[in-house]
Batch of 2 targets.
Target 1
Amino acid sequence: MRTNGDKKVQAYVDGLFSGVGESQQLFDLKEELTTNLKEKIADYKRAGMEETVAFNEAVSSMGDLSGLVDDMREVGQDKAKQAVYSSMTARISAAGLITGILLVLFGVLTSAMLFFMGLQLEAVTGTAIFAVFGIAIITYSALTRETSKKYAMNKVRAIFYAVAVGLVAFSLFVAFTSGFATGEMYIAISSFMIFFLVGIGLWLGLAFTGTDRRKMVAR
């Protein structure tokens, strides 16, 4: 959940670029500035400053951003630059989605093949690890893909989301593999629980601190 300090930082950054045309580049820049400001404020508060003083010091330390605002204003007016940037990120995202889907299919089909070969169940579930990696890649690629209604997520944040989802998927993989290997349900649950709780905890932390990626006007 966002604190009053977070809202104040967000309002400052939004006001800084008031009147600038919306674009993916602007969204990425605002995310970066917001993160930097929050880190600086946290550093100043640890040094003993009050929140208001820490905020003012953090803003002052950023220097003159008028040149950056002018650059973003030009980008917002240049549809060609926006199209090139969006097209490049879309191609990278599409490649990731294709790779992830193929990995999931490979893991599922290989496990099915081993099952019909009559192998032990722990061997059958072993190749499902490819599906786990595929799910994580799909998550990252989907979140970093700009759509008509939402901007692409910050890449670092998307990586953490991919790790969170990957851990949940891995918890299921470990549960089935260890359960079939030992025949003991408690081992399956204990193995599942560790990775599942870490993954859910990370996901909740990201969900409660996220920013709104919705576009003001859908294209």
Note: The chain is about 80% helix and 0% strand.
Target 2
Amino acid sequence: MALWSGRFEKSVGSFTQAFGASLPVDKSMYSQDIKGSIAHAKMLAAQGIISRTDLEKIEVGLLEIENQIEQGKFRFDINDEDIHMAIEKTLIEDIGVAGARLHTGRSRNDQVATDTRLHAKDLLHELLTQNCALRGVLYAKARDNFDVIMPGYTHLQHAQPVLFSHHMLAYFWMFTRDFKRLTYALKAADANPLGSAALAGTTYPLDRQMTTELLDFDHPIPNSMDAVSDRDYLLDLEYACSVSMMHLSRLCEEIILWSSTEFGFITLSDSFATGSSIMPQKKNPDFAELTRGKMGRVVGDLVALLVTMKSLPLAYNKDLQECKEGAMDAAKTLHDCMVCMEGMIKTMELHVPEMRAAAGKGFTAATDVADYLAKKGMPFRQAHEVVGNLVLYCEKHHKGLEDLTLDEFREASELFEEDIVSSLDLEKIVRARKTYGGTGHDAVKVQMEEAKQVLNADKASIGYVAQPLL
């Protein structure tokens, strides 16, 4: 019999009972539900609404239920609808009338809102921790391969030579922005709805500040109707996950390209590749491809929640039951993809000679040749035209800029002198980018130091504890 059955003459049918149940999804929130119930009971006792004896029985009973769940001894019944009813029904069966007093001054509406916020906070702490771990590996890969030169691309065509460390740090900063978005989502979730009851508050003298402190929320939500119906923080969580998955998909695409025969820049560890059932030679970047593909799943979670929330009237509606699963899925997917990426980056082998050789192909020095003329006094737009003609000449004669003689250069412009040959050196081209944020060695050293400081500050802000690589 349902705990709300007093008003009904007939029970819900077995199909509709299962259709309306959220227990398969929200049973993972058992610890948050028990934590919220203990805080509520302590507040009720402090306010003289229940006795200290009842509080002791409730707390002991809830902790025993938690222990049973963790040991796999708790029997979940789909007829209980959700984790909240499952725990409360068992508590009443175990300790009697004291358990029936737990729900005083509380509705499932503020209860589920509390549990969902607590669960979101826990998920976000895990994501923030793994974000730091991933950025740590990106930083280390950049540091350990600081001087490696590779081609930089625009439109997937050779553009200018860059340091591999500069390329890795570009992703470091993307994931740093993701950290900020996840932190914002954490702050959005960090508000206490408990005490709002169904939608209008309650006549009991509840101390919402007390439960706020017990549950480690930042503040109580000031409007009871908003408190029970708000799921914006889940949208924030799923948006942050979606953007981070987009960044992962970009990195995955490059890993897939770099590991191909056409590029040959890296070899993935056997731990992060698979073979073919028919082609013996194949080593496929399956896990990078899977991570790239999972972005659509997470974006789907975000869109699904947006559509679910669209046009919902105040206050609570059963539609909100659909909010939890997508948030859980988005968080777990991002977490697992970051763990996978951490391992891929940490273990991939760079093919340094191939990367450097590729950096010199595709006329990547062309901009520097134009700059050479501009520094000699030629307007840059005119220099751009001259070098464009040189590139066209090279293509027609199957040459690179480095293959041209001084006479061939001077046919394009009398401003070219013997020093043009040394100006085509990849090392010099890269080192010349000294401006803040550039790919020059000195600029990247500054960037590395800044990245280290930012990462250390972010780790400190969440009490980071290193996680073993799975």
Note: The chain has three domains: 16-104, 109-357+449-462, 358-448.
